[in-house]
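---------- Forwarded message ----------

FYI, see the C2H2-type domain-containing protein record below. Original note from H. follows.
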Amino acid sequence: MNSKSTGQLSKREKYLKLRGDCDLNEFKCFKCNTSFNSLKTLHFHMLSIHAENRRYYKCPVCDYTFVQVWCVNRHLMKVHKKTKEETDGLKIKIKPTTTAKPGNIKSDDHQYKYADFEKLKCLCCSRSFSTPANLRRHVARHLGLTRFWCKLCNYKTFNHSDCLQHVKKIHPTQDPQSLVIKCSEHSVNM
């Protein structure tokens, strides 16, 4: 039974309504102007991308952490060569950890936990890249690292070009260069 038939708001709806930065009818995030197919996916987006405190899931075999629990499962199968049955058995050990402002990761070594620079491959999603720089930028997204933000709406991203593109699309009457700010407290030397 959903909240529309009972007249009561679900926990997800209450959380999103209190935030005030998304449209519950159109499943749209105002922070990054992204639309979703369901309340569930909008809720997940707001928790994993725009929350002050974010959940991370640690691999029970090594120290890798992931924003999504399914990434841990894929990591277990691809990196640790676990079978589906072994992965299912380890699920009980995969617990969420809440971390404030994950963009503050500054370790140069941190990127190596998520990338194979010899094969130019992301260890989170197995995607391959043509250059180390492209791989670093991609891994930064998995880690939630940000270096640039929009003055008008606090949209944050790792790439300067992504932030400029955001300003041109979302705030077309504004000068993009004047609205993109480098946020040193979130920077990472990758």
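H. also flagged this: The chain is about 35% helix and 15% strand.
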